Amino acid sequence: MAECPLRGEEVTDHPDRLWAWDKFIYLDEKQRAWLPLTIEIEDRLRVLLRQEDIELGNPMTPTQRGPSLLPILWQLYPDGRYRSSDSSFWRLVYHIKIDGVEDMLLELLPDD
């Protein structure tokens, strides 16, 4: 996770799972909300997830959520990777906290 361009406190307690609550919110196992921002740089899909305290509405089913570049679920695997519900792997680029706000950057890994 040395690629972090920002100065912040490195966080080592990563969410075990992130579930899609609705189209623009993921929840972790501690019921914390994470807001995704999808970025594509040099044909690499990345997602910046920011942990925010927000009021949650009703959850969406996968059908209600509709098509998305992002998976319905990410699960933490060893070696700083997340496996998504479509069986792809995402590398944890960094997970930091600045002024009490957590940011986590995931990058989609190419298929082996």
UniProtKB/TrEMBL annotation:
One of its GO terms (cellular component) is endoplasmic reticulum. The keyword Protein biosynthesis does not apply. Its main location: cytoplasm. One of its GO terms (molecular function) is identical protein binding. InterPro entries: TCL1_MTCP1, TCL1_MTCP1_sf. It comes from the Eukaryota. Keywords: Cytoplasm, Endoplasmic reticulum, Microsome, Nucleus. It is found in: Cytoplasm; Microsome; Nucleus. GO terms for biological process: intracellular signal transduction. Homodimer. Interacts with AKT1, AKT2 and AKT3 (via PH domain). Interacts with PNPT1; the interaction has no effect on PNPT1 exonuclease activity. Belongs to the TCL1 family. PANTHER family: PROTEIN P13 MTCP-1, T-CELL LEUKEMIA_LYMPHOMA PROTEIN 1A. This is T-cell leukemia/lymphoma protein 1A. It comes from Papio anubis (Olive baboon).
